[in-house]
Amino acid sequence: MLYRKTALRVAAPVAVLALALTACGGGDKKDSADKPKAGANEPKAKPKPESGGELGTGESATGKVKEGDASVTYEITAQKVELGTEADTKKMVSDPKEAKGLVPAISYVKYTHKSGAPLKETPDANDGTTIWADGQRGTLVIGAADDAPGCEDPSSIEGWKQGETHVLCDTYLVPKDAKDLEIHWAEEDGEPFIWKFAAK
Q: Mean pLDDT score of the chain, rounded to an integer?
């Protein structure tokens, strides 16, 4: 299921580029009026969006993915974005001109299988992930992050079952001078959850 990553594919030596977050109390009324309510002065926790929205660093979203014939619920947490160099980009493309001004950005996203049947095939959980730089979607490099440190190759994951966690990565090409990076993850036809990171 690569519905988000199949707009355009161009052959490359290392990978294929594709253009591609009230309690009730009794008691005397007078006493109740004189006493502040518990938690009245405490800051309210920011509610998690039910379908899409911005999340803070370390916050998780929950979403469903069709895995084979079954629907699996995942807890998703975008951990970080790591940037490479233009020299790294040149190794990923056949024409050096395609690398000019672009650097690879690798998204690290943690997925925990919360409910649903064990997977029988390669997981599609990461198909809903994209990287954006300064408001523009980057260019996907398919397969480039499979051997990056801390990333797992989806094709090597077998029988992913409830309670298990894996870190899956994607590589996108973004402008080398980008300031604001975002990892987006969305269910099919859903609004994206968004995690923001500063470019380093």
A: 81
